[in-house]
Specification:
about 300 residues; six-stranded mixed β-sheet; 10 helices; globular
Amino acid sequence: MPDFETFVIAVYLLVDAFERQQVVPEPPPRGRPPGLCRTEVLTLALIAQLDRFASERAFARFAHTQLRGLFPGLPERSELNRAFRRRADDLGQFGRWCARHLGAATVPYEILDTTAWPLRNAKRRGGGTLPEVAAIGRSLRLGWFDGVRVLVAVTPAGIVTGFGVGPGNVQDRSLAETFFAQRALPAQVLTSVGRAASGVYLADSGFAGRRTRLHWAEAYAAHVYAPPQPDSGERWPRALRRWHTSARQIVETVFQRLVQGLRLERERPRTLSGVLTRLAAKVGLHNALIRWNRQTGHPDLAFATVIGW
């Protein structure tokens, strides 16, 4: 297990490699130069997602006492958090860049699934701080929750190729409809969804429905294989069901890494930009950790070898 400073430097070098390969360089800043360059902001935003930090406040306190030697221009906490929010798109691009360099564009299929992200206590009254996206929904893992539903696409190795966010009460098929539509556009509005690899997806029964699957295939070239619902009249052979269940298991491991290892479930952002920034940073760090593990000879998702300090 590396010491923390070595890991921070490794993340910085990886972000720097990403920055040098960007087609459009960052324009020079106007007015007073910022204390941190873009590479430093992205590095800190990624490191801040580790479970060892209970919150952004805890990370800022740690950074000011332990990381000022590496980042001498470190601003105070509120300015640092604003810098993170301004780099949400860059964080998303970094995650997709890592995925491409890990071979995500050549996989035979992707696994599609959703998980719940509670943003407040479901029993509290009032509209909350995110009425435009948060809603009360039901999850097999949590029961009733008040928050958002996160849709991710992952490769058989657990690399996240794209993600999306919707209200907690939205159906899986509605999220997938937007996800596939965005992936099919030449110029995406929601760039977090990434690009399709083979156009083949494995999903659970929440995405089932013969007419819906035909529509996705014809409109978006997205071929979704989900076990039929009990009342559909369709049946899958037992061997196919077993293989499908086994192949989809990797997405549960990815959710476990995001929810626990990168503390997604404990985050309580108060704005939509905070939701998207945190999620982009966690996906970016997730893919970066896989790259680190491959370089150091560890299993892809053995994150404890890196973040188990």
